[in-house]
Fold:
Amino acid sequence: MPSRNILKIYVSDSYYHIYNRGVAKQKVFRDRQDYKVFLKYLKEALSIPVIKKIDFNLQGRTFKGIKRPVKNFHHNITLIAYCLMPNHFHLLLKQKSKETIKSFMRSISTRYAAYFNRKYDRIGPLYQGRYKAVLITNDEYLLHLTRYIHLNPAEYISVLTKAYSSYADYLGLRNTLWLNPNFILKFFKSPIMPVVSKFNDYKTFVENNKTDSATILEKLTLD
Structure:
């Protein structure tokens, strides 16, 4: 039976939940370096592009040149939230132009798979098929989705802010320049939604909320 969310509808200026996991549920992050490399690729793709000049030698002479830049999506993709787990990942993105996510995910996935296969001397696909994408059109869904993403590591780590996720940024403990949590935190500055008015801040919403966000998200799971 085909997995949900494989057939994707791409809409400009819209939010998407992107997720995927390792083939046969195998780990895609085996150690700290793996997590850091994936985050490095996200940073390079989402940061303001910078042209760097490098020195290189040719026949005993030193020249200055421009290093070939990786594909950059700073002007078209905004990362709202993320979580990296041992065998899967979640990204909450907003794309400006239609179908930019396709190019973005192709770039990130290809680069990381090449790194992973080279490091562990393996061949074949790293992920379980193509990534899944869910178009989000509801603010309450968007809010609960960030909670679902940030609670993902709770099963294996006691301090959520130490997970490989954007949660520390939401609590003001870190300032990642290529991440924008304000799309979500703004809901708590003028709580109009009933679900927000019950909580003082985002941390309370995530950690003291007895509501099962997965149920609200129609029992969102990895297929």
